[in-house]
Write a structure and sequence with these properties.
Metallo-beta-lactamase, Chain A; seven-stranded mixed β-sheet; six-stranded mixed β-sheet; 7 helices; 22% strand
């Protein structure tokens, strides 16, 4: 799927998620900065990362200088090896997980063997196989810069660990001058292979974030696998979910 970046608000641009549920590709944000753009999440594969790089160039935005992981899940980090000259930033807990992931013998054969051993991994591992027609040059890349609680980057981008049931290292990224909060998957239920009956959206986390990123200053709350949402749209989702 070939997409174009669109300007969301101020200097925040958005490369949309894939609506095909078999192609587990989340949206990726690009925060323009004359000193080098900040990319939020790496894409689900090197080929997706290269499409995003082409979209950055086509939009006339500065080349990427930094890349932030919202969390360690594969569809947010597997494109990182196609961003060789950027500083990758991620939470310390996710970094330890990715160091282990980097040692696995990733291949279609490995994916099939893992699903045979644990069928609940099927949706995730089939998505990985779909995303990776070739494994040549692929590697999982742990972050170069780790943080524990929060971090403010040059240019004013704010990175903050929030945790939650979806991933222990879930991180949000705030762009105060644009009124945008990038949520990753932080309020989602646990991954399918870990999900239990009754698991749903983390409404308490959403309520806390809406309070801490107040109305009038933050107008966009953007999760990875949906179109960008207004504050009210996110409230409606949580109430109905």
């Amino acid at each position: 799927m070939r997409q174009a970046l669109r300007q969301l608000a101020g200097r925040v641009w958005w490369y949309p998620h894939d609506e095909d549920p078999d192609n587990i590709q989340g949206g990726v944000a690009v925060i323009s900065d004359p000193a080098g753009s900040v990319v939020v999440d790496a894409g689900n594969s090197p080929s997706t990362a290269r499409r995003i790089q082409a979209a950055i160039e086509a939009a006339g935005l500065p080349a990427a200088r930094r890349l932030i992981y919202t969390h360690h899940h594969w569809d947010h980090v597997w494109g990182a090896c196609a961003w060789p000259e950027v500083e990758i930033i991620g939470h310390r807990a996710g970094a330890r997980i990715l160091e282990v992931e980097a040692q696995r013998s990733w291949s279609h054969h490995y994916l099939r063997a893992e699903v045979e051993a644990n069928p609940r991994l099927g949706p995730s591992f089939r998505g990985r196989a779909w995303a990776m027609p070739s494994w040549e040059g692929f590697t999982v890349v742990p972050p170069h810069t780790e943080f524990d609680d929060d971090l403010t980057l040059p240019g004013g981008v704010e990175v903050r660990h929030v945790g939650g049931q979806h991933a222990e290292d879930s991180t949000v990224v705030a762009v105060p001058d644009a009124g945008v909060l990038l949520l990753g998957d932080c309020f989602y239920s646990p991954p399918l292979h870990l999900r239990q009956a009754g698991d749903g959206y983390a409404a308490d986390l959403v309520d806390r974030l809406m309070s801490e990123y107040p109305e009038g200053r933050y107008d966009w709350f953007v999760d990875s696998h949906s179109p960008p949402r207004s504050r009210q749209s996110l409230r409606d989702l949580i109430v109905s979910g």
